[in-house]
Amino acid sequence: MPWDAHLHLHYQRRGDTTVAHHRHHGPLRLFHSLYPEGPGICHNVIVHPPGGLVEGDTLHVAVQADAGTHGLVSTPGATRFYRSDGEPATQRVHIRLEPGARLEWVPLETIAYPGCQARNALDVQLAAGSEWLAWDVTALGLPGSGQPFDRGCLHQRLCIEGHWLEQGRLDAADARLLDSPVGLGGHRCLGTLVLASGTPWSRERRERLLDAVRAVLPDGLNPLPAGATCPNDHVLVLRVLGPLVEPVMALVQQGWSALRQAAWGLPGQPARIWRV
């Protein structure tokens, strides 16, 4: 039988401390809170014990960050969409930030296995003064293990309400998308890093943030095609393509580190929970 799992994570302020409250149904869990940066920033890991999604599985994650809180959420391993012969597997994430809240959504990669039928959606609401720093790294197939993405489909959606919407269909049968220069150019891993604000940035701050993230990018399109831009005065986006997860994730993490320092004046060392 398919799993229908829910997790609600709520960050609240208690004095100078950000505390995490949660409730769950089904196989979604939250590790205990960690404070490697002090009480103001709460680090958490979301765990899906089955280890992947098969046909008909649905995961719902809701995160609310109250005013003045700062949370960092990651995962201990990849999100895996396995082969399906019928119904799609679905992950839905809804994030809501109240005024002045900060949230970092930094999971490990998503892997679309050959033959998967998958839907992966993330919707974000930002109140005035809140900021959201997040990434999505997606691998199509496992080329290093001899499992190319030669069949299957992944639907992706990333929506920042009122500011930015990206949704698309990565179909293994779409050779123009996967292999042509106007698509992925033969790469099978794509990374997106986003910094978004509920309040518009000044031109000076926007340029300062762009300069910070561009400073870590390759000079040309080798070894990884990458670029950063601001589609509007609320959103900054970094795009990366690569043949495998590791170099894409490494560059995305460098971008995360640069933006964390430039936007918030916080250290950019890799989060401790990535080593849990």
UniProtKB/TrEMBL annotation:
Subunit organization: UreD, UreF and UreG form a complex that acts as a GTP-hydrolysis-dependent molecular chaperone, activating the urease apoprotein by helping to assemble the nickel containing metallocenter of UreC. The UreE protein probably delivers the nickel.
Gene Ontology terms for molecular function: nickel cation binding
Taxonomy, superkingdom: Bacteria
Keyword Cytoplasm listed: yes
Coiled-coil residue windows: none
HAMAP family per the UniProt record, alphabetical: UreD
Protein family per UniProt: Belongs to the UreD family.
GO CC annotations on file: cytoplasm
Naturally occurring in which organism (per UniProt): Tepidimonas fonticaldi
Role description: Required for maturation of urease via the functional incorporation of the urease nickel metallocenter.
Residues annotated as transmembrane: none
Subcellular compartments: Cytoplasm
Keywords: Chaperone, Cytoplasm, Nickel insertion
Signal peptide feature range: none
Protein name listed in UniProt: Urease accessory protein UreD
